[in-house]
Specification:
With about 290 residues, the protein is an alpha/beta fold. It contains eight helices and ten strands. The structure holds zinc ion (2 copies).
Length: about 290
């Protein structure tokens, strides 16, 4: 059974209001470890640390960091990215196998010298910078948010050690292992999942990353701001697919990072089920 870490930050907004209460039934499992930035350390709980500021300069420009500092959301951004960096550290130390990272501010629109779309710092890139210091060289990022991961692409544009497979509104690829796959709008669960499977699995099997990062946005779900017509259950099937790949190619080292999506009901439905998949507790939550 895989050991899964939950890295929880929640500073503002509607979508995570049911958490951590909605994690009931997961937190008492032997193989689930809970790291919390809000309530701190209690019995069996661990602190989630903000990202170390010295790491920021390895990914973002000085100007960009200064402008994030002036937004008033800097602390929340440090904790959001900190969850991903700490998840990678805990996996590297062998304390957990995989992780789900809650964020107040996501990831994939934060580039080297710009930010946008509620993404201030790029947690995946910061975690990769930290792992590179420890000698890890190969990383895969799968981005299933409705929108193009422009920030992540910008940071790793010329870095062939990072396979970036982004499912968005266009097709394209280049020689540095950067691939965009268009998801039609509207699409269906079957079409969307089969495109993701066909595009991601063979590439990642050849590339052989040591870690997989999953930019998990649910904003392509019906009724969301990036609506492409997919169901909320499609994300759970996708989690099963990505976990299977991670188990095959990189000893299960997988970090799912909450990216886009605004609806509270969808977050409350999908996130505990995704964590159940990661922790192999598939009987806890049935698909309905
Ligand atoms: Zn999005
Ligand atoms: Zn893209």
């Amino acid at each position: 059974m895989k050991r899964s870490g939950i890295f929880f930050t929640y500073f503002q907004g509607e979508r995570l209001k049911d958490f951590p209460g909605a994690l009931e039934g997961l937190l008492d499992k032997q193989n689930v470890v809970y790291y919390d930035a809000v309530y701190g350390s209690r019995d069996g709980l661990f602190y989630l640390e903000p990202v170390a500021e010295r790491l920021l300069g390895k990914v973002h420009s000085r100007n960009m960091i200064e402008s994030v500092r002036r937004t008033g959301d800097y602390e929340a951004a440090l904790y959001s990215a900190g969850g991903t960096v700490q998840a990678a550290e805990e996996i590297h130390r062998g304390n957990i196998d995989n992780a789900f990272v809650f964020t107040s501010f996501g990831d994939h629109h934060a580039g080297r010298d710009f930010y946008g779309g509620m993404c201030y710092l790029n947690g995946a890139a910061l975690a990769i910078a930290m792992l590179k210091e420890k000698g890890i060289e190969r990383f895969a990022i799968i981005d299933t948010d409705s929108h193009h991961g422009d920030g992540t692409r910008d940071i790793f544009m010329r870095d062939a050690g990072v396979l970036h497979v982004c499912f968005c509104d266009r097709d394209g690829s280049d020689r540095y292992n950067k691939i965009d796959i268009q998801i039609p709008n509207p699409t269906t669960d079957e079409e969307c999942l089969s495109r993701m499977k066909q595009a991601f699995m063979p590439r990642v099997e050849v590339f052989k990353p040591e870690y997989i990062f999953w930019e998990y946005g649910y904003d392509a779900t019906k009724g969301e701001y990036g609506d492409k017509g997919i169901s909320r259950d499609s994300h759970i099937r996708l989690a099963e697919l990505i976990k299977t790949v991670a188990d095959e190619v990189c000893k299960g080292r997988l970090i799912a990072i909450l990216c886009g999506g605004s609806r509270r009901d969808t977050a409350t439905y999908t996130i505990p089920r995704i964590i159940s998949v990661l922790a192999e507790l598939n009987n806890r939550f049935q698909l309905v």
